[in-house]
């Protein structure tokens, strides 16, 4: 009985060490040292988007809400740069919904095409 308990404890300890090793050995992503867009950059994004949210669902029109937040297309937490080419203007609702997800290549392509029209 005691040997069975000892083997169980050793197995749990080994599993814990394995989990800790994988957590600490993860490759860290490079992050841009500048996290937020500066006010002049945000003004350029507002001008570029005509003050409107740039989100557009696949089957519907562009969001009619006023764009209030400068957002990273490729999120900063996933290695996206704080540069104008990686910025978009979103309303509060769409910025919260996007969170730190990377949009699909189709979404990014459609955004670039849309930007030529406004």
First-residue to last-residue Cα separation: 75 Å
Number of strands: 2
- Gyration radius over CA: 22 Å
Give, in order, the helices and strands: HHEEHH
Helix content: 40-55%
Mean pLDDT rating: 84
By secondary-structure content and strand pairing, the structural class works out as: mainly alpha
Largest beta sheet: strand ordering: 1-2
Shape, per Cα inertia axes: elongated
**Based on the structure, what is the oligomeric state of the protein chains?**
single chain
Main β-sheet, in a few words?
Answer: 2 strands, antiparallel
Poorly predicted ranges: none
Determine the strand fraction and express it as a percent band. 5-15%
Give the count of helical stretches: 4
């Amino acid at each position: 009985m005691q040997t069975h308990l000892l083997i169980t404890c050793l197995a749990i300890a080994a599993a814990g060490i394995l989990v800790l090793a994988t957590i600490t050995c993860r490759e860290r992503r490079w992050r841009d040292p500048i996290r937020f867009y500066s006010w002049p950059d945000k003004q350029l994004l507002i001008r570029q988007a005509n003050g409107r949210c740039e989100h557009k669902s696949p089957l519907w029109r562009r969001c009619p809400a006023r764009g209030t937040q400068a957002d990273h297309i490729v999120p900063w937490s996933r290695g996206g740069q704080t540069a104008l080419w990686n910025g978009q203007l979103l309303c509060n609702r769409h910025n919260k919904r996007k969170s730190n997800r990377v949009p699909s290549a189709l979404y990014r392509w459609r955004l670039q095409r849309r930007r030529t029209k406004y």
